[in-house]
C-alpha cells in the first residue's frame, strides 16, 4: 500500500484561483457574527453561551454517531449518571466535551493568551484532555481487520489508518505533516495578516486536519474543537452564541460528502497545481462558511428580543396553568433576560408583592434553574440562567424536533 510521506501531498493548503465568493462569505460571516453579538447585554450573553455549550457537545458527538439525549446531558451536568453503562458512558463523553470547550474558550480569550490553534502542542492538548475524562474503553479501537488497538491520549498515531476511501499519511511522517500544518495555518504568520484570508484558512484547515488524521481515534471531535478555537481566536463566535457543530450535524450527509470529495486528487491541469483537488477544496470551504453563516442567522432569529419575550410569557402562562409559578414570575424572567441580573429589591418592585411572596417566586425560579442567586454581604443579586431541559420553551429548534417533544413532555 502506498502512503503519502511528504507534506506537499496535501497541497493546496489554501484555495487557488478565483476565490471572490469565499472572500465575500468571509466578510458576511464577520458582519453577521458582530450583529449577533450585539443582540443582548454581556451578562445575558454569557448565560446563553453557557447554555449553548451542551448543544455544541450534543451535535459534535452526534456527528460521530453518538446520540446522547439532551435530558441525559442535563443530568450529567448535575452528576446524575444513568445506571445503564452505555448511557452513562455517553453522558461522560458529553460532559468531557462541555468541560473541554469551556476550558478552550477561557484559555483563548485570556488577554495575554499565547495559544496558536494550529500548533501541534495545542491540538495534542485537546486530544489528551478529551480522553482524560472518558472511560478507559473509549481508548480501544478496532481496525478494519478487527485488530484491537489502543489510543494514546495526546499522542499522534503510530499506526496506519484508512477512513472510507482515504488512506491517512504515513505515521512515520506525521510530524513533518503537522509541522507544515502549524506553519501554514499560523494566524501570526506574515502571510496571514488579512482577517479575510484567516477565515478562509480556518475552513480549509478544517479539512486538511481531518485529512492528516493525526490521532488513532477522536480526530473528528478534535477537528471541530480546533475550528471552534479558530473562530474564538478571530472573535467570530459571537461570544459563544452559535455553533459550527450544530450546522455540520444538521447537514451531516453533505458534510461528510464534502470532506470526502476534498480528499480527492486533482482532476486535470485545470484543477489547481497541488496533489489534491483545488475545485473540491473550494467547494468544501464554501460549504463550511455558508454553514457558519446559516447558524449565525438562525441564532439571531432565536435570540430576537420580541420573540424571546413572547416565549417567556408563553412559558409563564403554562406554568401558571399547572400551578407551578405565580403570574408575576413573568416580570422577573423578562427583566433578568433584558438586564442580565436584578437585585432582590428589583424583584419586589417589579412584582409589586411582599418580600415573602417575592422570595417564594424567586425560590421557585431558582429550583427550576431559571435564576442563579449570589449573595455579597447583605446584598442579594439574581442572575439570568437557562437550563438544558427547558430549552424547547425558550430556544425552540436548538435540538432535533423529536428530542424537544420529549423534553417538553418532561417539563
Which descriptors would you attach to this protein?
57% helix; Arc Repressor Mutant, subunit A; globular; 7 strands; Fic-like fold; 2 domains; two-stranded antiparallel ribbon; mainly alpha
What can you see in these coordinates?
Helix 4 packs parallel to helix 8, helix 6 (174-184) runs antiparallel to helix 7 (195-212) and helix 14 packs across helix 15. This protein has a three-stranded antiparallel sheet with strand order 5-7-6, with helices on both faces. The chain has a two-stranded antiparallel sheet with strand order 1-2. With 411 residues, it is mostly helical. 57% of the residues lie in helices and 6% in strands. It contains 17 helices and seven strands. The relative contact order is 0.14. A hairpin with a 5-residue loop joins strand 1 (140-142) and strand 2. The chain has helices at 20-37, 42-63, 70-77, 85-108, 120-132, 174-184, 195-212, 219-233, 244-250, 252-261, 278-302, 305-321, 329-339, 344-351, 355-367, 391-394, 401-410, and strands at 140-142, 148-150, 162-163, 166-167, 341-343, 371-376, 379-384. It has two domains: 7-302, Fic-like fold (Orthogonal Bundle); 305-410, Orthogonal Bundle (Arc Repressor Mutant, subunit A).
As for the number of domains, it is 2
The H/E string reads HHHHHEEEEHHHHHHHHEHHEEHH
CATH superfamily of the largest domain: Fido-like domain
Low-confidence stretches: none
The spatial strand order of the largest sheet comes to 5-7-6
Instruction: State the CATH class of the largest domain.
Output: Mainly Alpha
Nearest-integer average pLDDT:
94
> Gap between N and C termini, in Å?
56 Å
Largest sheet: 3 strands, antiparallel
Specify Rg, calculated over alpha carbons. Answer: 23 Å
The fraction of residues assigned to DSSP E strands is: 5-15%
Predict the CATH topology of the largest domain: Fic-like fold
- The quaternary structure here is single chain
What is the 3D form? globular
Q: How many β-strand runs?
A: 7
Amino acid at each position: 500500500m502506498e502512503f503519502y510521506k511528504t507534506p506537499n501531498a496535501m497541497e493546496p493548503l489554501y484555495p487557488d484561483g478565483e476565490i471572490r465568493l469565499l472572500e465575500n462569505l468571509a466578510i458576511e460571516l464577520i458582519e453577521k457574527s458582530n450583529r449577533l453579538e450585539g443582540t443582548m447585554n454581556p451578562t445575558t450573553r454569557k448565560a446563553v453561551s453557557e447554555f449553548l455549550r451542551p448543544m455544541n457537545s450534543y451535535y459534535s458527538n452526534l456527528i460521530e454517531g453518538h446520540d446522547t439525549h439532551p435530558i441525559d446531558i442535563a443530568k450529567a451536568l448535575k452528576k446524575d449518571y444513568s445506571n445503564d453503562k452505555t448511557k452513562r458512558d455517553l453522558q461522560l463523553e458529553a460532559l468531557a466535551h462541555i468541560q473541554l470547550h469551556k476550558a478552550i474558550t477561557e484559555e483563548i480569550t485570556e488577554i495575554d493568551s499565547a495559544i496558536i490553534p494550529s500548533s501541534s502542542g495545542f491540538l495534542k492538548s485537546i486530544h489528551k484532555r478529551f480522553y482524560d475524562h472518558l472511560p478507559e474503553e473509549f481508548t480501544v479501537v478496532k481496525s478494519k481487520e478487527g485488530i484491537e488497538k489502543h489510543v494514546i491520549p495526546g499522542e499522534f498515531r503510530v499506526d496506519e489508518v484508512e477512513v472510507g476511501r482515504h488512506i491517512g499519511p504515513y505515521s512515520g511522517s506525521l510530524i513533518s505533516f503537522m509541522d507544515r500544518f502549524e506553519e501554514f495555518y499560523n494566524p501570526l504568520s506574515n502571510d496571514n495578516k488579512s482577517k479575510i484570508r484567516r477565515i478562509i484558512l480556518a475552513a480549509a484547515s478544517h479539512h486538511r486536519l481531518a485529512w492528516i488524521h493525526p490521532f488513532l481515534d477522536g480526530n473528528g471531535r478534535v477537528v471541530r474543537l480546533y475550528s471552534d478555537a479558530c473562530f474564538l481566536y478571530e472573535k467570530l463566535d459571537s461570544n459563544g452564541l452559535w455553533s459550527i457543530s450544530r450546522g455540520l450535524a444538521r447537514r451531516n450527509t453533505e458534510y461528510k460528502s464534502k470532506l470526502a470529495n476534498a480528499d480527492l486528487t486533482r482532476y486535470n491541469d485545470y484543477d489547481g497545481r497541488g496533489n489534491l483537488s483545488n475545485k473540491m477544496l473550494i467547494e468544501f470551504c464554501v460549504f463550511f462558511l455558508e454553514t457558519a453563516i446559516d447558524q449565525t442567522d438562525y441564532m439571531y432569529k432565536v435570540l430576537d428580543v420580541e420573540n424571546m419575550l413572547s416565549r417567556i410569557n408563553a412559558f409563564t402562562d403554562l406554568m401558571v396553568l399547572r400551578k407551578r409559578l405565580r403570574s408575576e414570575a413573568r416580570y422577573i424572567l423578562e427583566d433578568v433576560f433584558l438586564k442580565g441580573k436584578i437585585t432582590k429589591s428589583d424583584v419586589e418592585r417589579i412584582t409589586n408583592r411582599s418580600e415573602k411572596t417575592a422570595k417564594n417566586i424567586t425560590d421557585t425560579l431558582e429550583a427550576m434553574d431559571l435564576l442563579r442567586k449570589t449573595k455579597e454581604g447583605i446584598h442579594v443579586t439574581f442572575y439570568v440562567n437557562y437550563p438544558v431541559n427547558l430549552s424547547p420553551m425558550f430556544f425552540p429548534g436548538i435540538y432535533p424536533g423529536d428530542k424537544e417533544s420529549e423534553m417538553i413532555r418532561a417539563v
